[in-house]
Amino acid sequence: MAGLAFFFVLLPLSVILLLLAGFTKHKFFIYALGVIWGGLVLVLLLGAILRPFYTKKVLDKEDFYGAYVVDRDYFSGDQADWQYNHFRFEIREDDTFYFYETDGEKILKTYSGQIATTGKTYVSERLKIYMESPGHHVLHSNPTVYREPWNFFLVFKSTKFHNMYFRKGEWKPLVY
């Protein structure tokens, strides 16, 4: 679309302004041409500079490694606080996955498995989790990965709690 606008609008307009400037000897047409092309260059430059602020992060397998806690900022309240204190997980660099049922700092039960990613099938890799049986209701399906310009979060579809939002981070006791 932009290519068509360039060939059918910008180039003919530039030629017309140059011809008018040549025949009439008025500098206005040269100034107008300078404003049009200068504005175009400025917009393209500004777009290139601001690109990191609006482009979603491209994820590699290594980006998934780390500890995750329930994101209490996405949905706040008592339910999010309770989930934060009762569920967390980590993905280690040897591709092991450990999901923890907790009571605050104390780990009550650990579910283990392995992770893999889709590879370069998509622009950004997607996480796949293979759990040992019996599994946990949070881990019945692979998470959906939501990318942001600087970060990402994982959403698991729990059969009991519906969507559960996890972000990278270390568990810390809640202060009320």
Total number of beta strands: 8
pLDDT < 50 stretches: none
Largest sheet data: 8 strands, antiparallel
Number of helices: 3
What spatial form do the alpha-carbon principal axes imply?
elongated
Widest β-sheet, arrangement of strands: 5-4-3-2-1-8-7-6
The overall average pLDDT, rounded, is 90
Percentage of residues assigned to helices? 25-40%
Structural class: alpha+beta
Spatial separation of the terminal alpha carbons: 54 Å
- The share of residues in extended strands comes to 25-35%
Secondary-structure element series = HHEHEEEEEEE
Q: Give the radius of gyration.
A: 27 Å
Kindly describe this structure.
The chain is α+β, with helices and mostly antiparallel strands and 176 residues long. Helix content is 34%, strand content 30%. The chain contains 3 helices and 8 strands. An 8-stranded antiparallel sheet has the order 5-4-3-2-1-8-7-6. A hairpin with a 4-residue loop joins β6 and β7. α1 runs antiparallel to α2. The protein starts with a helix and ends in an 8-residue tail after the last strand. The mean pLDDT is 90.
